[in-house]
């Protein structure tokens, strides 16, 4: 009888050891799985961050994949010049060369078929090049805050000669700059520093936000993107609402949500390059009338950071990790994401009792 008991004890001890080992392995496995939720208002750079993850962690875009973006580049370029030309009429801006009015008519006549077929014919490319070179068009471009214009407008329009070539293949940077509205949820997987990342890019426009809900459960961290350069712009969906105010409102609702009391929030203050260009001639008081600092990058950027950090109602228990980013700059994103990953590793190990 004693013999049986000791065998049972032995078996129980083995089982206990096995359970402990399994728990430990499960903890380690959980610590290696990272779910990142990308949030932010529309056009804040979320999809560009996802594209950067492919470039940095998955060998980038193949030539074949780049070719598939050709039609998007053409469409973005055509849409950009059309937005500027339409705005000229609304803002009562004249062409420097009256002959450009004919080019504008040509632009509208040719653009529909070109976009539909995903092409950029020579006659249309020449029309766009002449229009973009006109002083009146350039003057209208400098007033882009008064209408809706793609951030990459100048990037493509300044490079028309290359883009219009018959053998044009978009570069990685061209692909990064493309703008396609995200609808639904885009999931990306990659491995970095021995961690398995699942990144969820959620449609930014307000009509899409109700679709976020089922993504929330068990996320490791939230990356919240803010377009710093949007401080003097209004929303595409609501021309009364300032884009920065909309971003702050959304950040407040995410940061102080009861579901996210334990979730790390990483704040990407994005489009710092555009912000730096803009702040010199467009004062921050447009968005924050109480701002008394200088209209230079350092002071204004710090003020925006503090405005977002002040929205955190649980400062003693919840930390916000802010970073100034330029989502189209691969080196910058690589550097920032490296720092973000170190924070995630540390917090993950703590949560799993391994730190």
From TrEMBL:
GO molecular function: G protein-coupled receptor binding; G-protein beta/gamma-subunit complex binding; GTP binding; GTPase activity; metal ion binding
Region Disordered, annotated ranges: 1-24
Keyword set, alphabetical order: Cell cycle, Cell division, Cell membrane, Cytoplasm, Cytoskeleton, GTP-binding, Lipoprotein, Magnesium, Membrane, Metal-binding, Myristate, Nucleotide-binding, Palmitate, Transducer
Cellular compartments annotated: Cell membrane; Cytoplasm, Cytoskeleton, Microtubule organizing center, Centrosome
Amino-acid positions noted as binding Mg(2+) in the UniProt annotation, renumbered to this chain: 47, 182
Residues that bind GTP: 43-48, 151-152, 176-182, 201-205, 270-273, 327
Top-rank lineage group of the source organism: Eukaryota
InterPro entries, alphabetized: Gprotein_alpha_I (IPR001408), Gprotein_alpha_su (IPR001019), GproteinA_insert (IPR011025), P-loop_NTPase (IPR027417)
GO biological process assignments: adenylate cyclase-inhibiting G protein-coupled receptor signaling pathway; cell division; G protein-coupled adenosine receptor signaling pathway; gamma-aminobutyric acid signaling pathway
Gene Ontology CC annotation, any one: heterotrimeric G-protein complex
Positions with biased composition (Basic and acidic residues): 7-24
Family label: Belongs to the G-alpha family. G(i/o/t/z) subfamily.
PANTHER family according to UniProt: GTP-BINDING PROTEIN ALPHA SUBUNIT, GUANINE NUCLEOTIDE-BINDING PROTEIN G(I) SUBUNIT ALPHA-2
Function, as annotated: Guanine nucleotide-binding proteins (G proteins) are involved as modulators or transducers in various transmembrane signaling systems. The G(i) proteins are involved in hormonal regulation of adenylate cyclase: they inhibit the cyclase in response to beta-adrenergic stimuli. May play a role in cell division.
Name of the protein in question: Guanine nucleotide-binding protein G(i) subunit alpha-2
């Amino acid at each position: 009888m004693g013999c049986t008991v000791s065998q049972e004890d032995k078996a129980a001890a083995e089982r206990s050891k096995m359970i402990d080992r399994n728990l430990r392995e499960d903890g380690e496995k959980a610590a290696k799985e990272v779910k990142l939720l990308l949030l932010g208002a529309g056009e804040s750079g979320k999809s560009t961050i996802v594209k950067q993850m492919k470039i940095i962690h998955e060998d980038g875009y193949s030539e074949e994949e780049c070719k598939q973006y050709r039609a998007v580049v053409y469409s973005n370029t055509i849409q950009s010049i059309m937005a500027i030309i339409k705005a000229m009429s609304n803002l009562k801006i004249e062409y420097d060369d009256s002959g450009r009015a004919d080019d504008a008519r040509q632009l509208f006549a040719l653009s529909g078929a070109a976009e539909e077929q995903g092409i950029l014919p020579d006659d249309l490319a020449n029309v766009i090049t002449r229009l973009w070179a006109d002083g009146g068009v350039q003057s209208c471009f400098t007033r882009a805050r008064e209408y809706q214009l793609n951030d990459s407008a100048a990037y493509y329009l300044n490079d028309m000669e290359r883009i219009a070539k018959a053998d044009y293949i978009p570069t990685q940077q061209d692909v990064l700059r493309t703008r396609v509205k995200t609808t639904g949820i885009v999931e990306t997987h990659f491995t970095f520093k021995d961690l398995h990342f699942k990144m969820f890019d959620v449609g930014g426009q307000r009509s899409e936000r109700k679709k976020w809900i089922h993504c929330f459960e068990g996320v490791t961290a939230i990356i919240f993107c803010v377009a710093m350069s949007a401080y003097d712009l209004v929303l595409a969906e609501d021309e009364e609402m300032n884009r920065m105010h909309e971003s702050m409102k959304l950040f407040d609702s995410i940061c102080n949500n009861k579901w996210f009391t334990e979730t790390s929030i990483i704040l990407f203050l994005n489009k710092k390059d555009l912000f730096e260009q803009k702040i010199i001639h467009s004062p921050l008081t447009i968005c924050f009338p109480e701002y008394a600092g200088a209209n230079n990058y350092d002071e204004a950027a710090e003020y925006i950071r503090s405005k977002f950090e002040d929205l955190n109602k649980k400062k003693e228990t919840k930390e916000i990790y802010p970073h100034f980013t330029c989502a189209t700059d691969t080196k910058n994103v690589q550097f920032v994401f490296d720092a973000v990953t170190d924070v995630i590793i540390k917090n993950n190990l703590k949560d799993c009792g391994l730190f």
